[in-house]
Write a structure and sequence with these properties.
Distance between the termini: 13 Å
Structural class: alpha/beta
Largest sheet: 7 strands, mixed
Number of strands: 22
Helix content: 40-55%
Mean pLDDT: 85
Strand order of the largest sheet: 6-7-4-3-2-5-8
Radius of gyration: 32 Å
């Protein structure tokens, strides 16, 4: 019964009507009773006490006073008029002022009748005044649903224009809560409520809108935040479970010759404990008979490629082929060279397929791939073409997965009659809280330690006024035989300006270092020219690479030991961290120098301080998340996933972890939510699956 009432269109609520309904739909996406109930305040005004006029302080605080209006008059001012009313209580007198709406106010105000007024006070010429106060007759005040903490709802210009003020929203909320009689079905089980000492659904919804006191407000917020995050986690964990049940995967039970020979005889260095742990997780996934969908996170240089190779060798030992897809040609060539070198003593056929592969070579690759002569194929988007047919693809590795769309990744699934195992890798650390919410349906592995022998990169912040010292430092490093990157920002709206910055920078460096060779790379160059310049730098023919952020993902030049980032304040944290990861790949000490002007915003200062304080990508990602919020961090295509109504995954990080652990526990004991005590959870979950946003189904 209550569910039907909650689906009632909003125009049927007393005080709404068709015009207001249209504005509410357009501005706030509120089209039913349920939407209104799940429209939460973003702050509260404390109305627990009343002040006397004589006790008012000379500050601009919001106060509540009981008194009477004894006199009203119009006063001329430079532009138009203002209405002034004398308001008194038993201790003194003050003025109430209106600069607009005079006619309506004069007609409706009652003289010598007790009112409760609320607003911000001003003090001028020995007199307190309150412009545009909220007024309520004491008789109405006693009758109304009374709250000590007044909710303040998010608003827009259009809502104000159409007269849908905070007061109106409160009245509508009062009306809808009275109509429902607070009979909300419970969506969590009794065990959860008791264990976490959560208040009931009805109590939480009442106290989020009309809190009786601070304590009940805190309990209501906790209960509703937990619930929102709990159902997101139920959805993600259940999706993961269903995938494993439904999508059968190849069972790679054998660990054979290729894997063991490589591990025992050709491994160039001892694996870190983190790498060993991740290889174990992948082995267990690929042997389980369910399709693997695993996200491998690891900072730049943490050794993800070795883990990917060892996973591919498991596929080969079980009679299958493997492929590795990278977002750019340069990166795929680098992977090809790196893997070919690691496997040079193994009897393996590794091929490279990119947009530049010649037709004759393509034909050979297509034939050998179908006949099973190719063991590992490395390439770009070219791997997704329909012509590329594998004999038996068992594992697909995707590097820098955020650079590929979902549809592109899905194409790899279709490269075999049973979908291959999928390992997606990223060097962009994703904060744990965000990963749990966005990739909660993937299993996540993290390589959180660097291989031994890698020296941490020294990062310093220098102002433009120190440029000559920085140039002297560059000269010293190049004389030691090192190479240097100098990176300029690239911001779409001002491409001309950025190009000018880059060219100015290039010219000043060419003037400063006439005896050194310089490469230049930017987005307006033809791909072939870009590759040619990159290649000269990789081969050590040029000592300085002047570039825009096109080098953010890609080239591995162990000899490059200095990264200069110009106008560093114009970069985001994760981008700064990615750029810094281009150096520090050899045995020598590497440096990252962040150059800025003297005028810096607080956020810029925080970013620069974070970069100089830590090399830990996950720590950096957490700061980035706090500064930019989840939407910005994930880009528009994914921020919609977290269209949260009340929880905040940054501030409510601890509630998110709690919600995930309880969701996991419940699904472990009752995977299909069939037990009697989980009926409420099942109903809410099935509404969640039908609707795409989180709150439509929870009430």
């Amino acid at each position: 019964m209550i569910q039907n009432l909650l689906q009632t269109p909003i125009e049927y609520l007393k005080g709404v009507g068709p015009n207001r309904a249209e504005t509410l739909k357009k501005e706030l996406n509120i089209s039913s009773y349920r939407d209104l109930i799940n429209f939460f305040p973003n702050r509260y005004i404390d109305k627990t006490g009343f002040y006397k006029i004589a006790a008012l302080q000379q500050n601009t605080s919001e106060v509540q006073i009981v008194g009477k209006i004894v006199h009203m008059k119009m006063v001329d001012q430079k532009k138009g008029k203002r209405l002034v009313a004398d308001f008194v209580d038993d201790t003194g007198r003050m003025e109430l002022i209106w600069f607009r709406g005079h006619k309506w106010i004069r007609e409706n105000l009652k003289l010598n009748t007790p009112y409760v007024i609320f607003g911000r006070t001003n003090y001028y010429n020995g007199m307190f005044s309150m412009p545009h106060p909220e007024l309520e007759l004491v008789s109405d005040y006693k009758k109304n649903l009374r709250v000590a903490m007044q909710p303040v709802y998010p608003s827009t210009e259009m809502l104000q224009k159409k007269g849908i003020t905070n007061r109106v929203v409160m009245r509508l909320m009062q009306e809808v809560l009275q109509q429902t009689g607070l009979k909300f079905s419970e969506s969590l089980n009794r065990g959860l409520l008791e264990e976490l000492k959560l208040i009931s659904k009805a109590e939480a919804l009442f106290n989020i809108h009309f809190p009786k006191n601070q304590e009940l407000l805190a309990k209501a917020q906790f209960r509703l935040k937990f619930e929102e995050l709990f159902f997101i986690q139920i959805q993600l964990l259940r999706k993961n479970m269903l995938n494993k049940q439904k999508i059968k995967g190849f069972s790679f039970e054998k660990i054979g010759g290729h894997f063991l020979e490589f591990y025992q005889e050709h491994l160039p260095f001892e694996l870190t404990n983190a790498q060993k742990r991740v290889v174990k997780e992948i082995r267990s996934d690929m042997g389980s008979g369910a399709q693997m969908n695993r996200l491998l996170q690891g900072d730049v240089g943490s050794g993800k490629t070795i883990v990917a190779l060892m996973s591919m060798l498991i596929a080969l030992d079980n009679g299958f082929q493997a492929c590795l897809m990278a977002p750019t040609e340069i990166l795929s060539i680098q992977h090809y060279n790196g893997l070919a070198d690691l496997c040079k003593d193994l009897d393996l056929k590794i091929y490279l397929l990119t947009g530049s592969t010649k037709t004759a070579m393509r034909r050979e690759i297509h034939e050998k791939l179908e006949s099973g002569e190719i063991d590992i194929l490395i390439g770009t988007h070219a791997l997704l073409e329909d012509k590329v047919k594998f004999k038996n693809l068992g594992l697909a590795v995707i590097d820098e997965q955020h650079r590929f769309g979902v549809a592109q990744r899905a194409k790899l699934w279709k490269k075999n009659h049973i979908p291959p195992h999928i390992l997606v890798m990223t060097a962009t650390p994703i904060p744990r809280t965000l990963a749990m919410s966005l990739y909660g349906d993937l299993d996540i592995s993290v390589i959180d330690e660097l291989p031994p022998g890698r020296k941490p990169i020294k990062t310093v912040h220098r102002y433009d006024s120190n440029r000559l010292k920085v140039f002297a430092f560059i000269r010293d490093e190049i004389k030691k035989g090192r190479q240097v990157y100098v990176v300029y920002p690239l911001i779409q709206e001002s491409e001309k300006m950025d190009y000018k910055d880059l060219m100015d920078g290039y010219e000043s460096i060419a003037r400063e270092f006439p005896d050194f060779q310089i490469s230049i790379v930017h987005g307006q160059m033809k791909p072939a020219d870009k590759d040619y310049e990159m290649d000269r730098f990789v081969r050590g023919e040029t000592q300085i690479m002047v570039a825009t952020t096109v080098i953010e993902v890609g080239v591995n030049v162990p000899n490059a030991s200095v990264m200069i980032i110009e106008s560093a304040e114009r970069f985001g944290l994760s981008q700064l961290h990615q750029l810094r990861g281009r150096v520090g790949r050899g045995a020598e000490q590497s440096f990252c120098i962040l150059m800025t002007g003297h005028k810096l915003s607080n956020d810029s200062k925080t970013r620069l301080e974070t970069m100089t304080a830590t090399n830990d990508g996950f720590e950096i990602a957490e700061v980035d998340l706090k500064l930019r919020g989840p939407g910005d961090l994930m880009g528009t295509q994914q921020s919609g996933v977290l269209n949260l109504k009340i929880a905040d995954i940054v501030k409510d990080n601890s509630i998110l972890k709690l919600a995930r652990s309880y969701a996991g526990k419940i699904l472990k004991e009752d995977p299909n939510l069939e037990k009697e005590e989980n009926i409420g959870i099942r109903h809410a979950y099935s509404r969640l699956v039908k609707n795409k946003t989180i709150w439509n189904y929870i009430s």
